[in-house]
Amino acid sequence: MFDAAVFGSLFLTLFVIMDPPGITPIFLALTSGRPAKVQRKMAWQAAAVALGVITVFGLVGNQILAYLHIDVPALMIAGGLLLLLIALDLLTGKMEEPKQTKDVNVALVPLGMPLLAGPGAIVQVILAVQNHDSFSGQVAVWSAILAMHIVLWLVMRYSLLIIRVIKDGGVVLVTRLAGMMLSALAVQQIINGVTQVIHGA
């Protein structure tokens, strides 16, 4: 059994949050000056680190929430506010691009985390795992997570080719559209959280 609706919803949400087109110029900036073989290796490392972080939070996220006595509506509202901040940065073009450092493996930090496996993606994965507890739902959720990270790896792996095809203007356009979609998603998540609080009162 496979829930295509759950897969599609989570995949699109993670795509908007993790923003593969927008990560392309950042990846190029962080790995500039390195041989193509090293760039390909760093693309794999960054995707693997992000997948590992997301997997840990997906598996033990509920336990963390229970230990901290955090209810789902509170997490939804907080996550919505966080996503809104990210969306505003995407819309205004104020996302800071970290500079390359020679002493640190940038594929691990900051590329793998927090740029790819950031708070917004972590919140969405925790909620998805918690809200879809059936077998088909869990298969769809983890399939979407895996598929998203494969996309991230492919985008970074072929970033030099992609940037030549869509140019800088294309990256900016896609980033702005992602910001609009993410802002709407953030507001809807806040509304859903507040609604649950009101109904639970």
Automatic annotation (TrEMBL):
Keywords: Cell membrane, Membrane, Transmembrane, Transmembrane helix
Membrane topology: Multi-pass membrane protein
Segments traversing the membrane: 6-30, 42-60, 72-92, 104-127, 139-158, 170-191
Subcellular compartments: Cell membrane
Alphabetical list of InterPro entries matching this protein: Multi_antbiot-R_MarC
Pfam families tied to this protein: MarC
Main location: membrane
Top-rank lineage group of the source organism: Bacteria
Family: Belongs to the UPF0056 (MarC) family.
Entry protein name: UPF0056 membrane protein
Taxonomy of the source species: Bacteria, Bacillati, Actinomycetota, Actinomycetes, Kitasatosporales
